[in-house]
Amino acid sequence: MKIVTIARNPENSPNMTTNDAAILERITEELRRMGAVVSAIGATEDIPENADIVCHMSRTPEVLKKLKEAERAGIKVINSPEAVENCSRIEFMRILEKNGIPQPQFHVVEKTENFNSLRFPAWIKRGNGWSCHKDDVSYVTNSEEAMNVIGSMMQRGVDSFIHSSHCEGDIIKFYGVKNSFFTYCYPVADSTKFGLEKINGEAKHYHFSIDTMRDIVTKAANAVGLDIYGGDCIVNNNGDIQLIDLNDFPSFSPVRDEAAKKIAEFIMNSK
């Protein structure tokens, strides 16, 4: 089997470039151990016509366009480019809403909106694309802070914004591979992309149902179309679970070795 890998572009991997590269390297090792012929190509290179599968972490429009063309030519692409596009924040939040998947209340903020009508504390999030800057997801306590955050985003060319309710509780990170792997962990201080988990403070380890979390996450991943995914949930003191982030192909840093084997197995069984 001939498999092509494409790494994530650095601008979509803030503070995670090394970890993103590490998971793809471990997957490549496992695939070769299983007998696959694996080659890595750059974002500007053409996808070989004789490839059976493309395993990628890309998010740029240029690469996603090439991946769609590869799919039309009969090449299996993991994750599908459409699923990756669905992970643009405003897209996946609307998909979760449509499918009744629990998440914090949110709405799209208009530039002319009266911020005094919004509830605080809250999170102001970049609506389009993925978080590439530390201010693309910001905790705010009042309307003035919200306007400052949006002003900063606009200066960087961002033109879509989300107001999302703040929820107290434990932040829990999850990782999954379709139909074969699911795990979770509490975030480790100073090891995450922007360290925003500290807003919720030290984990209280509230009791919750792992089966319920798995069901919520699996339903969300299926609705978006992801095969390889990760993200964050929040668990409150009643054990209620809400999904607050969903990502295509995370770095799997806390479970890299185990995840690499499961991902490689999934890829080999996908054609």
CATH topology of the largest domain: Rossmann fold
- Major sheet attributes: 4 strands, parallel
CATH architecture grouping of the largest domain: 3-Layer(aba) Sandwich
- The DSSP helix count reads 7
The share of residues in extended strands comes to: 15-25%
| Whole-number mean pLDDT | 92
Tally of structural domains: 3
- Report the helical percentage: 25-40%
Structural class: alpha/beta
Structure described in brief:
The protein is an alpha/beta fold. It folds into three domains: about 1-80 and about 260-270, Response regulator (Rossmann fold); about 105-165, Dna Ligase, domain 1; about 170-250, D-amino Acid Aminotransferase, Chain A, domain 1 (2-Layer Sandwich), CATH 3.30.470. The protein has helices at about 15-35, 60-70, 80-85, 90-100, 145-155, 210-225, 255-270, and strands at about 1-5, 35-40, 55, 75-80, 105-110, 120-125, 135-140, 160-165, 170-175, 180-185, 230-235, 240-250.
What does this 3D model show about the protein?
With 271 residues, the protein is an alpha/beta fold. The chain folds into three domains: 2-81 and 259-268, Rossmann fold (3-Layer(aba) Sandwich); 105-165, Dna Ligase, domain 1 (2-Layer Sandwich), CATH 3.30.1490; 170-250, D-amino Acid Aminotransferase, Chain A, domain 1. 32% of the residues lie in helices and 24% in strands. The protein has seven helices and twelve strands. The strands form three sheets. The chain has a four-stranded parallel beta sheet, with helices on both faces. Strands 5-8-6-7 form a four-stranded antiparallel beta sheet, with helices on both faces. The longest helix is centred in the first third of the chain and has 17 residues, at 17-33. The protein is globular, with a radius of gyration of 19 Å. It starts with a strand and ends with a helix. The mean pLDDT is 92.
